[in-house]
């Protein structure tokens, strides 16, 4: 199926070869520069390590790899100047993206402009283009032909233009994957969770970083949800359709949050399924707010009884909103309570 949309082009690679005669001449010239005195072995003078040195050794330093300070090139590089105007975070690139600075300094802005135009034509806002380059400057290494093929693949898979722009914006590394890689990754989610085509597109649209996430970590979270929490395969399908980012959570934190919700607060599996995003809440935040509700005698999570508290409202919002609207108290009293924990 992919053959209908992928066109292969041949790349001619030119190589400059060094002939044996050139190598010989180079070696001969270097040999001629050597004087007889330099060729004669000299016996090193024996000195005690405790004797003071008479020679200057200030030039002796630890070997350091070449470094690049991107700010030093701001006045000389048109690309750097234009990136600054665009809003690219060069400081982030310099600190966080390995080998990106020398790559950027080799770029010609006339070529970069073609990529910028491509991204805006896809529907990406210019501010988001700056974010894209900040997170993944090596996207500029991809050929326009390959990028076009990858966009056409998504269209072929019935992703809307708005969805494509959103996917690339939320996951700056998406277009660095080949169409074969993305096809395999989408197929993994469809097969693992028995999803329909529209459901796969829904997950990719909601959490595009999940699609390119480490699949072994995804499998481990599925194991945690099924074997350690007790959710069925159908339950897990519903969970990821509502909150797909759960599959990117750290396993131990995910399990601790579930155990507090299920064993301490007493929420049933069904109650958690109705608002699975609660599983992404930090255990400490969950514990602090729940214990304050217990103190205020407001820990009532049964929707069929009076003074029902929705567990989502318990963990969302600011401390001020929680303490006044959910706990029916004040932020001052809540802060005093936190100091007792």
TrEMBL record:
Stretch list, region Disordered: 27-48
Transit peptide recorded as keyword: yes
Pfam families: mTERF
Feature: compositional bias, Polar residues: 27-40
Database matches in InterPro entries: MTERF, MTERF_sf
Signal sequence range: none
Top-level taxon of origin: Eukaryota
Keywords: Transit peptide
PANTHER family associated with the record: CGI-12 PROTEIN-RELATED, TRANSCRIPTION TERMINATION FACTOR 3, MITOCHONDRIAL
Family indicated by similarity: Belongs to the mTERF family.
Protein name: mTERF domain-containing protein 1, mitochondrial
């Amino acid at each position: 199926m992919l053959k209908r949309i992928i066109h292969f082009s041949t790349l001619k690679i030119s190589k400059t070869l060094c002939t044996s005669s050139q190598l010989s001449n180079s070696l001969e010239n270097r040999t001629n520069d050597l004087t007889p005195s330099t060729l004669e072995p000299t016996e090193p003078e024996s000195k005690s390590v405790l004797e003071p040195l008479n020679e200057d050794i200030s030039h002796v330093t630890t070997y350091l790899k070449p470094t690049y300070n991107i700010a030093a090139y701001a006045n000389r590089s048109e690309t750097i100047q234009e990136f600054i105007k665009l809003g690219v975070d060069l400081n982030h690139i310099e600190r966080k993206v390995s080998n990106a600075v020398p790559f950027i300094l080799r770029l010609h802005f006339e070529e970069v402009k073609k990529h910028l135009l491509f991204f805006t034509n896809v529907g990406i806002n210019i501010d988001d283009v700056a974010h894209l380059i900040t997170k993944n400057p090596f996207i500029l290494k991809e050929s326009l032909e390959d990028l076009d093929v990858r966009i056409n693949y998504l269209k072929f898979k019935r992703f809307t233009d708005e969805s494509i722009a959103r996917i690339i914006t939320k996951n700056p590394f998406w277009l660095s994957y080949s169409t074969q890689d993305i096809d395999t990754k989408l197929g993994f989610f469809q097969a693992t969770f028995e999803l329909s085509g529209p459901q796969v597109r829904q997950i990719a649209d909601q959490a595009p970083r999940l699609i390119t996430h480490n699949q072994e970590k995804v499998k481990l979270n599925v194991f945690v949800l099924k074997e350690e929490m007790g959710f069925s395969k159908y339950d897990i399908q519903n969970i990821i359709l509502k909150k797909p980012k759960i599959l990117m959570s750290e396993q131990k934190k995910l399990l601790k949050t579930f155990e507090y919700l299920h064993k301490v607060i007493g929420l049933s599996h069904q109650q958690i399924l109705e608002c699975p995003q609660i599983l992404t809440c930090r255990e400490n935040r969950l514990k602090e707010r729940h214990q304050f509700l217990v103190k205020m005698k407001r820990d009532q999570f049964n929707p069929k009884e009076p003074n029902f508290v929705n567990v989502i409202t318990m963990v969302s919002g600011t401390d001020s909103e929680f303490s006044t609207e959910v706990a029916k108290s004040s932020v001052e009293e809540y802060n005093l309570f936190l100091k007792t924990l």
